[in-house]
Design a protein that fits this description.
Length: about 400
């Protein structure tokens, strides 16, 4: 155990000294901590067993001042420097959120692996400090293996998601306590919303919670109260209510809330609607992923959850499973997905559906070419309208949108 503490202590002191030489400039911390972690190579000596034992030592672990708040399962501070910490984070299931940070530093994969995606956000409309509309665009996607180290600049310089694949994945995070210049801790919801849900006032939070309770136990009161909250509340409250309703109400209920919110906020609401639909994709992929122990399918579903790019998905499939055409691998995985013990793709419709899916995943978009490719496999359509209808239906499946659109 001493080895873990020695290693962390040495790293902490080195970072503390380097940072002091910059007058503890927050803007310098990401680069210097990235360099220190890269040079220390902590993944070579810090095993899962040694870290778990160290994190459970009563007398050595520093005072823990933050709750994990879904960030780490759990996260444990192992070193406390002056205005910075070194933490180890244990992960069982990945984080879905795309976010930026109010701190700067660096992270390193000590065990397991992660999907890491970086994004750009072009702001089109500011609602307030913690709610923005714009276009979120994937900048880079990569698989991180044990030993990967990445800097964490605070604020919008790093908008990212880190989805941890293996159970457990363990990461080391060196971070400042807080960078006061970094603004709101925005989360991004594809394709257009940036929001800091922690910025809700306690009153707003309690109104939303009370509505959930009423929906569960007094549905007669729920709709009048929804109307009242929407009439008096702001755009952020309406968005969060709509977002929550997608997970808990049927289609008709969601449409009813959307109509009520439109009555109050008008066209201002339109920019938020696509991100509500994207929530359906996230929920279905999470649900399917939790329902299977198949490691390959869990990896595939993690890609569908996290990576909004056909090319990046295929590249990562090829990197993780070399030797087989990634397109064929993806088609085989889709055939294997089951819902309640039955195949997701009905056997009766499977041959033509899968052939069509294969063409889209392979990057073919021209309808005449798709028709010819299917004909070469002995699969035909009665007319072009039938092909168009099947293509449209397939492209409208949110789960596969990254691969088919
Ligand atoms: Fe992060």
């Amino acid at each position: 155990m001493t080895m873990v503490w020695d290693e962390i202590e040495r790293l902490g002191r080195r970072i503390g000294e380097a940072w002091a030489r910059t007058s503890r400039d927050e803007a310098a911390f990401a680069a210097l901590s990235h360099e220190a972690v890269t040079r220390a190579e902590p993944w070579r000596t810090l095993s899962v067993e040694a870290l778990a034992e160290a994190a459970l030592e009563h007398d050595r672990v520093p005072v823990q001042t933050r709750f994990s708040e879904q960030f780490g399962e759990p996260s444990v501070v192992l070193f406390r420097g002056e205005s910075f910490t070194i933490e180890v984070l244990f992960w069982v299931d990945g984080l879905v959120s795309i976010h930026q940070h109010r701190f700067s530093g660096a992270f390193c994969v000590l065990a397991g692996s992660s999907i890491h995606c970086r994004y750009r956000f072009a702001e089109a409309r500011r609602v307030n400090a913690w709610l923005r509309l714009g276009a979120l665009e994937l900048a880079h996607a990569e698989l991180l293996a044990r030993g990967a180290v990445r800097p964490i600049p605070s604020g919008p310089d790093l908008i990212h998601s880190t989805f941890h694949l293996d159970r457990p994945t363990i990461t080391l995070v060196v971070r400042t306590d807080a960078d006061i210049e970094s603004g709101a801790q925005l989360e991004y919801r594809r394709p257009s919303v940036a929001i800091d849900p922690r910025a809700l006032t306690p009153q707003q939070q309690k109104r939303l919670e009370l509505l959930q309770t009423l929906r569960a136990v007094r549905s007669d009161l729920y709709w009048p109260m929804v109307e009242r909250v929407l009439a008096q509340g702001d755009l952020a409250e309406a968005y969060l209510l709509l977002h929550e309703s997608r997970a808990s109400l049927d289609d008709a209920g969601c449409q009813r809330i959307l109509a009520l919110a439109r009555d109050v906020h008008g066209e201002a609401l339109d920019g938020f609607v696509p991100s509500l639909a994207d929530g359906d994709r996230v929920r279905s992929a999470m649900w399917l992923r939790r329902a299977t122990d198949d490691d390959e399918l869990r990896f595939f579903l993690a890609l569908l959850l996290q990576v909004p790019s056909r090319a990046a998905i295929l590249e990562m499939v090829g990197e993780r499973y070399p030797g087989v055409d990634p397109v064929e691998r993806v088609v085989a995985w889709v055939e294997r997905i089951e819902v309640d013990g039955a195949p997701l793709i009905e056997r009766a419709a499977a041959a033509r559906w899968l052939a069509l899916f294969r063409e889209l995943v392979g990057g073919r978009t021209d309808r005449a070419e798709i028709k010819a490719a299917l004909a070469a496999r002995g699969l035909s359509y009665r007319n072009d309208f039938e092909l168009y209808s099947e293509l449209t239906a397939l492209r409208e499946i949110p789960l596969f949108a990254a691969l088919t659109c």
